[in-house]
Amino acid sequence: MSTKKLAENVYSVGAKHPERRVFDELVPLPDGTTYNSYLVIGSSKTALIDTVDPLVREQLFNNLKRLKVEKIDYVISNHAEQDHTGSIPYILHAYPGAKVVTNEKCANMLNDFSLVSSDKLMIIKDNDTLDLGGKTLEFSMTPWVHWPETMVTYLKEDGILFSCDFFGSHFSPADILAGEHFYMPAKRYFAEIMSPFRNNVRTNIQKIEKFGIKIIAPSHGYIHLNPQGIINAYKEWSTDDVKNEVTLAYVSMHDSTKKMAEYLRDALEEKGITVNYFDIPVSDLGEIAMALIDSATVIIGGATVLAGLHPVAANLVYIANALRPKTKFVTFITSFSWGERASEVIKAGLSNFKAEVLAPVISKGSPKEAEFKELDRLANDIAAKHREIGVLK
Ligand code: FEO
Fold first, then answer.
1. In angstroms, what is the span from residue 14 Cα to ligand 1's centroid?
2. pLDDT tens per residue, range 190-230
3. CATH of the structural domain 243-388, one choice from 3.40.190.10, 3.30.450.190, 3.90.1150.10, 3.40.50.360
4. Which atom of ligand 1 is nearest to the CA of 219?
5. pTM of the predicted model as reported, rounded to 2 decimal places
6. Nearest C-alpha neighbor of 47 from the set 37, 56, 57, 35
7. Is the distance from the beta carbon of residue 187 to the nearest atom of ligand 1 less than 6 Å?
């Protein structure tokens, strides 16, 4: 990725990784990602803010070479995860005078990951500042977006907030400054990474709003030249509000569960409810995570295998539960041939949902008239609940 000038003596110097297709061996990356790193040059000191995944560190080094950077005094580490810190040892090797500036929790993690030795660390606290000579960095602790040690760095003179993962997006655009297209990539990122911590997100937004931010420069994806756009989007996504939507995600082996899912989808749509409909084995986990942000109701559809829940559905139940969605109602539909424990697995697996459990529909074999009637009953129940909470008029 080429360098971008954000202000006088402030540059983006990070790396693109458009071909990366999965993150943490879990999160799909249909559009790749970037690891944004920033260089701030003061009259006396130079700081590099976060580094890049070591797989693409050559791009970072090429950018530093292009800008003829002969010395780095500080490497600011906003977050210990290795996609931002994995290249720190290489930077310290190339710039042996540099110190790594971070908070104590992050420093301990960098030690744990064998990335930085204690003698190279400079520990800062909330609200501390670092003078680079005409460029002042202020550090603000913003825990749990999305690890406990996360912090942001604010460049006072230029109004730039370096926010690391906070406000980021896994996207590898042609131009990281083309921020008007930020919404969907940022929503996907929020859904996959930030949504379990939405209370912390709200608190941390209040905290950073004290700064007169002109630019938000995260460490993935678009740089936000209109900071209020992404701040407003984060406020919207992190509320407890839900919409008149159902997420219906199912897996079916011989079409019984599929027939139930299709019937229920159509019945709900006829009542004016938007259904986010996913055949789990061929669906993108990020799309499902995004649907969970808005849905008042979640329905898991699971075929039965060996008397238990189909593992593909079980995996989704596990992930959805970990995302702690703000769903108000949850239920399930299952079919089985000779033994039914799928529903027990689903109920136990959704323990993090603070949702009312609606009566499920379970079919022995393919669904027949009685099961279709039950699916109508379930559609009616969901519509009534949506009216009760005011999302369906
Ligand atoms: Fe982009 Fe949590 O690392």
1. 14
2. 999 999 999 999 999 999 999 999 999 999 999 999 999 99
3. 3.40.50.360
4. 1
5. 0.94
6. 37
7. no
